[in-house]
């Protein structure tokens, strides 16, 4: 990613601290953001043009205290909660449009996407935000945990509250505590970290798909707001599609798919496979978000080939869907123009040198 300059880092840091003063923020979260900004790790906020990006890390060893599961990788298809898929899809798109068809999403980052940070990002163009991943049992049982890890305000919308869970009743009870303060409940089915394996949640529920189906159906039937999900792909595209369709029929109204396998945790070494995301998008009727890779290559293509953006805009308009339209940032356009001017100057200097050489000869 392109990093902010030192002056810009300081400006954003001061802006973030202003939000921290307005919205009380745990000191460890403040220290984390300050450390990243001062080290130059705070990426340009306009990189939220990525539809959805995750940097999930372990919160605490308490995450290992979820209930055990009995593994089953067979995709269940019997007795779906959704009996009319067309009506369900229409309702899902109505929900998506009702919150403004958000294009720029703040990811659910543990100890990072707290209220102050979400508001900072909203001030810089983010159009939807997720809370950090919350432990459903701790959130339900521990008022101190709940007060520290979930804060919001009227301006903090649209808001998705994300839980990790593998017990349907616990997940629903925890979600009921916040359903009046957010727009949707998101179920984390994509965390690949070891702590998730110990606790049987996140991407490791891919080993127990009937449990996944049960949790989503419980949330769908028991909440008055939509349930959304984040998943990773299976090695087989057919099984990935079957998994996504199971979630859709269980009640999921928006699905985000990360294009890497559960085992592919190092994003710097393995690129996400967007062919899987494309296949899922084509197979589902509900809104789908793609996740994985930073699309600088695509942005560079837009910078160089204006007809690419025009063609994409035409296809989006023809589809009738509320899809995001990538655009060149002012800074990217300025870089492009500066580079073109530099190349022209080099060409002119070469031509002038050639003319001088010819004159001497």
Description:
By secondary structure, this protein is α/β, with parallel strands linked by helices. It contains 14 helices and eight strands. Strands 1, 2, 3, 4, 5, 6, 7 and 8 form an eight-stranded parallel β-sheet that branches. Helix 7 packs parallel to helix 9. The N and C termini lie far apart (50 Å). The relative contact order is 0.12. The N terminus is likely disordered.
Task: Pick out its properties.
alpha/beta; eight-stranded parallel sheet; 14 helices; 48% helix; disordered N terminus
What's the arrangement of secondary structure elements?
Layout: H1 6-22, H2 27-38, H3 85-98, E1 105-106, H4 115-123, E2 128-130, E3 134-135, H5 136-141, H6 143-149, E4 159-164, H7 168-176, E5 184-189, H8 194-199, H9 209-222, E6 227-232, H10 237-250, E7 252-258, H11 274-283, E8 288-291, H12 296-304, H13 306-319, H14 330-360
Parallel strand pairs: 1-2, 2-4, 3-4, 4-5, 5-6, 6-7, 7-8
Helix pairs in contact: 1-2, 1-4, 7-9, 9-10, 10-11, 12-13
Q: Helix coverage percent of residues?
A: 40-55%
How large a portion of the residues is in β-strands, by DSSP E?
Answer: 5-15%
Mean pLDDT: 80
Shape: globular
Structural class: alpha/beta
- Oligomer, anyone? single chain
User: How much is the radius of gyration in Å?
Assistant: 23 Å
Short summary of the structure?
The protein is α/β, with parallel strands linked by helices. The protein has helices spanning 6-22, 27-38, 85-98, 115-123, 136-141, 143-149, 168-176, 194-199, 209-222, 237-250, 274-283, 296-304, 306-319, 330-360, and strands at 105-106, 128-130, 134-135, 159-164, 184-189, 227-232, 252-258, 288-291. The chain starts with 5 loop residues before the first helix and ends with a helix.
